[in-house]
Design brief:
Blueprint (H helix, E strand, L loop, with lengths): L29 E3 L6 H12 L3 E5 L5 E5 H4 L6 E4 L2 E4 L2 H16 L8 E5 L7 E7 L8 E6 L4 E3 L2 H8 L3 H11 L4 H8 L3 H15 L4 H12 L8 E3 L5
Antiparallel strand pairs: 1-3, 2-3, 2-8, 4-5, 6-7, 7-8, 9-10
Helix pairs in contact: 4-5, 5-7, 5-8, 6-7
């Protein structure tokens, strides 16, 4: 998957050179690492942030040029900045990350593909860093998107109602299932009997064309993955 910063939704026709951008006017959601920045590239970082993902912009020399606020939460929790280079704190993960970054920087544009690297953490489950090559002649060259599977985006019930003609009660149950809740827990939260929740879940499966809770959760997660976090709720899955 390739991103072109020319189509980032900004009015700038190209990314400004690092030394030409005044960070005093940069959006507060973007954290500069080097002196200067990229106007169009900040739109890419803000887009990642609106989707709840961390974003890092890298130049030709692997140096981090800027990153957004969600990206900062990974620093010290699986990732680190050594100088101006992004590294993984786990040695094996860092070997894979650096190799993938090097390959992405050297890739022939026409053969470029998205690369994904799993990053291990000491006390929490691993997360994924997706590496995208930016199709542009000037820095930045790479966009690294950090995605934490523990933070599952859940779309609003109203969106599911509109898409699949679910009743408010059915949409509420669908959100609960997508959040990783058991039917008994959904029933307790809604103050209804579990038999009622089972009836709603069967109707949901029929209307959404899914064959069980796992398929429904996967469908809802895919829908939420490209929904702004302002509309979605970010929830950690329940653990028995």
């Amino acid at each position: 998957m390739k991103f072109s910063t020319k189509r980032a939704g900004c009015r700038t026709s190209q990314i400004s050179h690092i030394a030409e951008f005044d960070y005093a006017s940069a959006p507060p959601s973007v954290v500069p690492v080097q002196t200067g920045g990229m106007q169009a590239a900040t739109c890419v970082l803000n887009l990642c942030q609106s989707l709840g993902h961390g974003g890092f912009l890298l130049g030709n020399g692997r140096g981090v040029l800027a990153y957004n606020r969600p990206a900062a939460t990974y620093l010290g929790d699986g990732l680190a900045l050594r100088g101006n280079r992004l590294t993984a704190t786990d040695r094996a993960s860092d070997v894979r990350l650096q190799a993938s970054i090097g390959i992405a920087l050297l890739s022939v544009e026409s053969r470029d593909e998205r690369r994904s690297v799993g990053i291990r953490r000491n006390l929490r489950p691993p997360f994924v860093v997706h590496i995208h090559r930016l199709v542009h002649e000037t820095p930045p060259k790479l966009l690294l998107v950090a995605c934490d599977p523990e933070l599952s985006p859940v779309p609003p019930a109203s969106m599911l109602s509109d898409m699949f003609r679910l009743t408010p009660a059915e949409a509420s149950v669908a959100v609960g299932i997508a959040s990783g809740k058991q039917l008994a827990e959904i029933a307790a939260d809604g103050g209804v009997k579990i038999e009622t929740v089972r009836v709603h879940s069967k109707a949901i499966f029929s209307k959404t064309g899914t064959r069980g809770q796992a398929e429904l959760a996967a469908l809802v997660t895919r829908l939420a993955s490209w929904s702004p976090v302002a509309a979605c709720r970010l929830e950690r899955p329940n653990r028995a």
